[in-house]
Amino acid sequence: MNGDALRGHLELLLLAALAQDEQHGYALIEWLRVQSEGALELGEGSVYPALHRLEAAGLVGSAWQRTTGRRRRIYRLTKLGRERLGEERQGWASLVRTVDLVLGAS
Amino acid sequence: MSDAGRYLSDLRRALPRGQRRRILTEIRSHLTDGIAAEVARGVDPDEAERLTIERLGPPEQLASQFASTGRRISTARLAALGATVFIVVLAAVFGFAQTRHAPNGSTTVERNAAPAALSHVGRPLDDRRRILVAELEQLRRNLALKARHRLLTRPATGTPPAAHQP
Known about the structure:
The complex is a heterodimer of chains A (about 110) and B (about 170).
Chain A: H1 3-7, H2 10-20, E1 23-24, H3 25-35, H4 47-56, E2 60-67, E3 70-77, H5 79-105
Antiparallel strand pairs in A: 1-3, 2-3
Chain B: H1 3-14, H2 20-40, H3 45-56, H4 59-65, H5 75-101, H6 107-113, H7 123-153
């Protein structure tokens, strides 16, 4: 899959990742790298601004966690974020169905 | 300075002041994790550092993506907040002053009519409040006087300014 196309859905992907468990930024990026088979390789720093946007929108919460003398920002899904993820999943599924229909018909 | 150090100082320069601390802490942590992960995969430390930095993207580009995420209070919001606080305080003070000047104002009436949030306040603060009310009243009078003065001295519209008159 093309990296740019994937990046357009970065926030949805992050919500999906956080639905499994709370994570810090680097772990999320590692997860995305594995899930997307390296498609997000360059400019993966954009995950951090995306997380901050999600937090400003109230979909994600965060807190500092101190591990081995280092501070990490841990992100977790809020109730609102979980609701939004459900809506976005439905929207995505219906989009895929529609595109499949059109592509199948041509 | 290491490449990672240079990356962080470039990023710091490109970030808005209010967002620097948190973002720099996060990205520093990211660099440490990233380099350690590559080294654990058997990559040479210098190459691990280069790779981790390259994947993050240019510092200026990263900084610009944070521009719209700030939860900092904007100047406009701060001004609005300040104005609200000022109005609330004024309302409380004048509300109190009015009950105090009420013609039949016995002490109990005054106390009951005073804003609930202030009703527990003790004597010394009452005195301070009275001084503040007096000062505000003085300020109001001065402003009214100044405004009247300005109205009286301003030349009528259409006539040339006073300086040019004989």
